[in-house]
Inverse folding.
């Protein structure tokens, strides 16, 4: 395929993704899908639909060959002089430049992700063991969890799969005990759910589609729903809603550094209001309501994907 065709297919795919997110993104509000865990499933279904859109038919280059008819006996077989093809300038065309910019953006995002992983490793090497009692939070986790105190993080960070690591800020020992327990419960739940692997996959998608605002919005909603899901699980575990809200506010009051970590953070300030409101409202849904809303939401995503590819 030529650069023009590749650029055209990328533009078409981008438009399809925008249509899917724009048409089905309102489904949770219209269907009153308020349970964070159900919303997380819905956002993942929508993300999967967006990633599967390129499996549809992409425009290919078509070659048309004109076959000269047979000439009668005695007719001249002299063919017309070939017309010189224009010099190929794909590398210097507008489409070629656009594809180069997109590729450079993907490389930059992957480099940013690699830098984040390197910084997480550096934080762990420069941290000290955290002497806190957390055995009751580690129940059900087969792998040992390394708890450490780091001067370089302003919010708790959890990463690692085979050897999970929880980095706690230097101010953690100074917090009240109920606040510390709420934070530990939150981080150990991330370990139990293996959220770090999912976060890495989401960041890889963000790197590949860095140019699409709909993907950034969708990943932001996915991150928020995940944190709200863990918030509700922590409140159910500790039975102490007020202390957990206090933990969110305590971490929010710390001056945050530049966020490079490709890992679930205890708090992103842009999510604070939504998470507190979700905790205070105590929204509940029956299994029948969740199943009905999710089924209707998945149908909405499928319909949006069909309309986007058929448009």
């Amino acid at each position: 395929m030529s650069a023009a065709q590749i650029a055209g297919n990328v533009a078409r795919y981008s438009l399809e993704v925008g249509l899917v997110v724009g048409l089905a993104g309102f489904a949770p509000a219209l269907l009153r899908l308020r349970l964070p865990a159900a919303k997380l499933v819905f956002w993942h279904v929508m993300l999967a639909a967006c990633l599967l859109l390129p499996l549809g038919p992409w425009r290919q280059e078509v070659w048309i060959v004109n076959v000269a008819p047979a000439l009668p006996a005695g007719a001249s077989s002299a063919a017309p002089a070939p017309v010189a093809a224009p010099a190929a300038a794909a590398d210097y065309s507008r489409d070629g430049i656009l594809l180069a910019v997109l590729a450079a953006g993907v490389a930059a995002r992957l480099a940013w992700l690699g830098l984040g992983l390197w910084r997480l490793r550096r934080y762990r090497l420069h941290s000290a063991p955290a002497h806190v009692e957390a055995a009751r939070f580690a129940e059900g986790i087969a792998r040992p969890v390394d708890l450490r105190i780091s001067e370089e993080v302003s919010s708790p960070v959890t990463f690692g799969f085979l050897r999970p690591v929880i980095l706690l800020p230097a101010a953690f020992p100074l917090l009240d005990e109920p606040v510390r327990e709420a934070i530990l419960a939150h981080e150990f739940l991330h370990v139990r759910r293996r959220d770090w692997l999912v976060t890495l996959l989401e960041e890889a998608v963000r790197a590949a589609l860095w140019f699409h605002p709909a993907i950034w919005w969708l990943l932001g909603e996915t991150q928020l729903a995940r944190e709200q899901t863990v918030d509700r699980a922590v409140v159910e575990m500790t039975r102490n809603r007020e202390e957990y809200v206090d933990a969110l506010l305590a971490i929010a009051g710390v001056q945050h550094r530049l966020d490079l970590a490709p890992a679930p953070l205890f708090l992103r300030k842009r999510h604070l209001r939504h998470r507190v409101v979700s905790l205070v409202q105590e929204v509940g849904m029956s299994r029948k309501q969740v199943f009905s809303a999710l089924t209707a939401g998945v149908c909405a995503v499928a319909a949006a994907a069909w309309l986007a590819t058929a448009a």
About this structure: The chain has a mean pLDDT of 81.
